[in-house]
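Figure 2 data, in text form.
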Amino acid sequence: MIYFDHNASTPVHPDVLAEMMPYLQGCYANPSSVHQQGRVAREAINKAREQVAELVNAHSSQVIFTSGGSEANNLAIKGSIRGMSLSRLIIGSTEHPSVRDAAKYFAASTNLDVLPVDAQGVIKFDDLSRVSSTGAPALVSLMMANNETGVVQDIEKIARHLQNDAHIVHTDAVQAAGKININFTQLNVNLLSLSAHKIYGPKGVGALVVDKRIDIEPMIHGGGQEKKWRSGTENVAAIVGFGKAAELAKLNLKGNVEKLKDLQQYFECQLHQLQGVIIFSEQAERLSNTTFFGVPGIDGETLLMQLDVQGIAVTSGSACASTSLMPSHVLIAMGINEQAARSAIRVSFGLQNTKAEIDQFIYILKIQIEMISSLAIMEN
C-alpha cells in the first residue's frame, strides 16, 4: 500500500507510541485522584501541556486539551460567541466543515459573513477590510492552512488588522502544525486549534490555545477538568502522545519541511508531464506536502476507487466530508467549474514516503486516466 493521505491522518510515530504505553498499561489512574498514581498521571498531563505549548510558542496555561481539532474549533466558535456575547461571526469560504457547521449553528442569532477567496484560494484582503470594518466586534475564524489545497493564509497580517477593530481572531492551525512555524504570540490571534493525529500523534486528542483575555463558555460541564473549560476525565495516554508528537514536530520541523518539499516538487514536475492535469492553487503559498490536482473530464471518485484497487490511498478532498457526493466546496469557492472540481484528487505526503512511490503512482495514474478516458469514449 502506498499511503498518500497524510492530511487525513498520519501514522503514530514509534517514539510517541513508546511514550504512551505506560499510561495504557501500568499507570492507569485517574489524574484527578489525589493518591500517588493519580499525581503521576497529572504530572504527565502537565508535561504534555508544556510540550504542546512550546510547539506554538504559547504558555502551558493557555492550552485546553480536547478530543480533536473539530471539538477545538467548536469550542473556539461556540464558546467565545457565548462567553463574549458576540453577535457577529466572520469565516472564510474555504473553512473546514467543523468551522462551517459551527457557524451555521448560530445562523439564526448571529450576523454571519462568509469571505470570498481569489482563484488561488487566498482571502481577499479588501473584502476582509470591508466586512470587518462595519458593525460590532466579531469573532473571525480563518484557517491557517487549507486541508485540501494546502494554501497558507497570512494570518499574522490578517490578525493585526482585525485586532485594530477589536475583533476576536481564531485560526484553525490543524493542518499547519508540524509543517510551518507557528508562533501564537507573534500571530496576534486569540484562539488557535490543533490536532495530534496530523503530526504523528494519536487520534482523539487535540487542543485549543486560548488568549487569557478571552472568556470562553464551556460546552461540556461536569467535574471541572481543564480549568472548567472542558470537563471530563482526561485521556492521559493520548494527551501524553500528543505532547511527544508536538515535541518531535518542533525539533524536526526544518528537516521535515525540506524532505516534504522535495517530494512535492518531484511529484508536481511529473504531474505536469501528464496531458490535461491541472494543479489547484499552484501559484499560492502552500504546505510543503500537499498537492490538489484534477483532470477535467475524469471523475475524481472513479479515479480514486481505481487507485485504491491498485493499492494507492489518496482522497478527493476533506476526509471529514468524504461521504458527500458534492464537489469540493473549497474549489467551488475558488471559482473552479464543477466538472474540474469533480475531478479533484488530493495527494498529501508524509515522512515515510519516497520518490520511488511517486514514480509508481505516476505510472499507475497515467494508465488509469487512459483507461477511464477510453471507457468514456466507448460509452458515448
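Caption note: Residues 355-379 form the longest helix (25 residues).
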